[in-house]
Amino acid sequence: MFKKDDAVLYGKYGVCRIESTQIRNFGQQSVEYYVLRPVFQGNSTVYVPTSSESLVSKMRPLMSEQQIMDAIGSTKDHSVIFSLDDQLRREEYRRILNSGDRAEAASVVSALIGHKRDGRFRLHKCDEYFLETAKKLLDEEFAFVLNIRPEQVDEFVSSRKNA
Fold it and tell me: What is the pTM of this model?
């Protein structure tokens, strides 16, 4: 499915480059792994067993430049994030992060930033965690695809929204 040098999004590690596949022996069992190198996280290495559908399914292809532009322009209504029920919001955030729907994540991040900025919605711990986690993943993916630095993403997004 994936090959050497492909770039993928993998869980909390963000954008990773597939360095190789490798067979490792554990006792009498040999297991093949994808060897991933997170692009924005120094010298980390992540091993994903190629035979584990649940883990391989978390390796997602990066968005295209057009998909990023569409995500920036997205204005979906995410009223669930304004629920006073912390558990409901936490579950919705977990669903969004696990789904890999970056357009939905970008829309919620945008809404949270807006509410934080104008004070209409007090962000709780679960909101701040989602905002930090999702924003980091989105910034890294947008930066990689658009060939800019992660710290330039906010300016890029603002310029596109105001265009």
Answer: 0.84
